Amino acid sequence: MITFFLSLFALVIGYMFYGKYVERVFHPDNRRTPALAKTDGVDFIPLPLWKIFMIQFLNIAGTGPIFGAIMGAKFGPSAYLWIVLGCIFAGATHDYLAGMLSIRNGGIGLPDIIGKYLGNKAKTAMLIFSILLLVMVGAVFVYSPAIIMGSIVGDVVIWIIAIFVYYVIATMMPIDKIIGKIYPLFAFALIFMAAAMFVGLLVKMPDVPEIWDGLSNRNPQMGPIVPILFITIACGAISGFHATQSPLMARCMKHEKLGRPIFYGAMITEGIVALVWATVASYFFYGGGAEELGAATSASAPQIVTIVSQNWLGTLGSILALLGVVAAPITSGDTALRSARLIIADFLKLEQKTIRSRLLICVPLFVVTMMVLWFNIADTDGFNIIWNYFGWANQALSIFTLWAITVYLVQQRKPFIITLIPALFMTFVCTTFLLISPIAFGLSNWIAYGIGGCVLLVALAWFARWYKTCGCKE
Questions:
Q1: Is residue 253 within 8 Å of 51, Cβ to Cβ?
Q2: How far is CA 28 from the centre of its chain?
């Protein structure tokens, strides 16, 4: 497990040094934050640092750093590299700067950030794109926990109705009433679960593949590492969905200088959780774990979580597994719909202090989500397809955010290279995935790489031309 310990150390060092550098690039100050300037008792409410951190962590995590890391471990030790490098240089930087731009601009949502720095056409596209993504998140995160709970007790449809009723209440209520009180507890459970798995790894010290062992320990059925790995492991490395969640907490922060522990720190914490579960999965797939635990290596990610937790932690493990695979996606789903409500409200310039104005947005939003959900229930294949497209859309969203942040850094004459490189990389990844994936064009690898390379060069040329004419150079 040497690679695991080195990776863990790298994430901590990344927060201490590179996170500090990114913070210095943005340069937070003592200006009045939206939480204090626009307090409305619903969405703009000052909250303490620890509570904001826990809510932010749970909002951006859900089951992403668990399921994504488990599936990513099938690519072998290369998963460690993506989690570490992606988290430090792409994901945490993306989350921090997106959140800080929201604070600096009055708590605006992602589409408004995109519009300010990439133009109104990009804003309109992002408005539609982000709402569709958030609706998919809401629908997917109703269905998956309902299936798990339905297999334990009751009926799936009843659980779907119960979870959706909770969604309606949580989306409508002031953020400090439900989210502010319950989410820190669920976030603690998710962190405690990862810590328990970490202790289990220390006790067992399984023989898992190291990064210097090469690519022999990987499942070839997963497809090429580039770009599939970078879509499979999203939340543990970089995720565009995070940029829709950061404005929620940007509206609750009392000081700009809290940004690094909240935004950058929550992403690093998520990366640590992903590292732990990637190592657990490596033990399961390649370290004899499946045989030792009496399971098949073909087990799904939720099954692996349940099997390992029960065997390593007993009854407590079962409870924690339930919280991890049920509570976490539910909480991510309702904050996704809350973000959608706020994005639509900002676009329509509709105040959200009164229940009536919230209902004007929530009713049609819930109806659309229910329609998507009903399609998923009626057609299992349709659900799988929408889940795969969600994975791609999630990473594609990060491209828009990274390019918008890059434009901001150029305009402010700051080191824009910190987001330009991740923007170019994710542009290549998302393009090639769309071309290679059988749910899209299904082209051969080399044709996809060639077209993806051309798109990368076009993006770089566009940026170079814009930079030359924008009047932002020193």
A1: no
A2: 24
Question: How distant, in Å, are the alpha carbons of 225, 235, 423 from that of 427?
Answer: 16, 17, 6
Read off the pLDDT of residues 156-181 as tens digits, 9 standing for 90 and up: 788 888 888 888 888 888 877 877 88
Q: Measuring CA to CA, which residue among 125, 161, 127 is closest to residue 142?
A: 161
Give residue-wise pLDDT tens across range 11-33. 999 999 999 999 999 999 999 99
DSSP 51-86: HHHHHHHHHHHTTIIIIIHHHHGGGTTHHHHHHHHH
* Cβ–Cβ < 8 Å for 108, 320: no
Q: How far apart are CA 117 and CA 115, in angstroms?
A: 6
Range from 187-196, 226-235, 333-342, 390-399 that averages highest in pLDDT: 226-235
Domains present along the chain, CATH in parentheses: 2-11+31-469 (1.20.1740.10)
Amino acid type, 60:
I
Q: Tell me the longest C-alpha to C-alpha distance in the chain.
A: 65
Give yes or no for a contact between 80 and 278, defined as CB atoms under 8 angstroms apart.
yes
Contact 390, 414 (CB under 8 A): no
Q: How many CB atoms lie within 10 A of CB 67?
A: 26
The pTM assigned to this predicted structure is: 0.90
In DSSP notation, 356-410 reads HHHHHHHHHHHHHHHHHHHHHHH-HHHHHHHHHHHHHHHHHHHHHHHHHHHHHHH
Cα gap 381→128, rounded to integer Å:
24
Cα gap 135→142, rounded to integer Å = 11
SS (H, E, C) 131-200: HHHHHHHHHHHHHHHHHHHHHHCCCHHHHHHHHHHHHHHHHHCCCCCCHHHHHHHHHHHHHHHHHHHHHH
C-beta of residue 264 within 8 angstroms of C-beta of residue 55: no
Amino acid code (one letter) for 221: Q
* b (16+ CB within 10 A) / e for 250-287: bbbbebbebbbbbbbbbbbbbbbbbbbbbbbbbbbbbb
Could you give the CA distance from residue 303 to residue 371 in angstroms, rounded to a whole number?
28
Look up residue 456 and give its two tokens. Answer: 């990368």
